[in-house]
Amino acid sequence: MVYIDSLKGVQTVSAWPLWTQPAPPPPVHPPFKIRECGDKGLGMFALRRIPRGDVIVSQRPLLFSHPCLHVHADQTVSAFYESALAGLSSDTQSAFNSLRNAQLETEDVSRIRGIVLTNALGTQLPPPHDPTANYNAVFTSLCRANHDCSPNAHYSFSAETFTGRLTALRAIQAGEEITIGYTDIEFPRAQRRQVLATKFNFDCGCETCCLPPKKASESDTRRAAIAAFLIRLNELNADIAEEAEPLFPEGATLARASELLRWAEGERLVEAAYKLTMTAVGLALKEHNMSEAIRLTLRAINYLRAEEGNDSPHFAWFAREAGLSPEQMATKLDSSDEEMMGPNLNA
Ligand SMILES: C[S@@+](CC[C@H](N)C(=O)[O-])C[C@H]1O[C@@H](n2cnc3c(N)ncnc32)[C@H](O)[C@@H]1O
């Protein structure tokens, strides 16, 4: 692993105590294999059924870099990457070089830089660094996950253990491709496709992008409404204290949040469904509808474990409060009445 920014950056990162700690162990029997899948190149496919919330893969980055490199005036960004990579072990170099480069090679974008641009996922640094600053990380198998506009896996990065991982957002069936979202999947089709074409150089042919015109237009209307609501929610709550009451968009009601939640579930937008469920809990409390608040809280816990994983400390806390182990809680949530717990979002 190498950190590319400046000499000072390399020194800071080399001194991190976490390098003396082993990385969290990945699943003992990886539940996926990487294989060719047509025009997309390689992809990740489930070897067996992967339950919601299970960790699919967990690994430290192969390469980690600041998105704005401080290079000398007489050096290009591409040359900087070349010299940094040359300092790595030959195994790491060949793992890096085997990754896909979907960028057109130009004077500015060498093959190595193209690999970073094609594969980079967002990471943050551990304290005392700014937790909101985003860095680029490139991983070996984790970067083989292709994009889908209704993905079944969630990428997250732990700054504390410096590990990236994928968890199953819903149960993934054996043979199914494991996918993540490269862009804001709540946006309508044209906007998503434009970002994917410009940034990643491909035309998305996922199921949602290939819907017939009437269904595509319904999907766009629903996604645009979900996106507008979530953007406003983010804006309102960006600067409020953690313990403060959340603020809701103007005119938001439990009925409206529940409608958007149903749409998000219909669109298989699990991450949006989680945020909308949390918002609906807040609105149910505001409207003194306690039975709905409890029903929605259970639904939110089910979504939380999908994103944070079945080993999430938050999920373990909820399970403990219910007098259950996390495994018992997960089984109960999965087997409970769908209306109560939210659909399993299986095909
Ligand atoms: C991070 S890589 C994903 C793994 C890659 N398929 C490989 O062979 O290593 C990203 C690149 O994979 C391809 N890709 C990912 N998702 C795709 C999709 N839904 N349709 C077509 N190509 C896709 C694009 O070339 C994209 O720039």
UniProtKB/TrEMBL annotation:
Entry-linked PROSITE patterns: SET (PS50280)
Pfam families xref list: SET
Coiled-coil residues: none
InterPro entries given in the database record: SET_dom, SET_dom_sf, SET_domain_protein
Location of the SET domain: 30-183
PANTHER family reported for this sequence: SET DOMAIN-CONTAINING PROTEIN 5 (PTHR47332:SF4)
Name of the protein in its database record: SET domain-containing protein
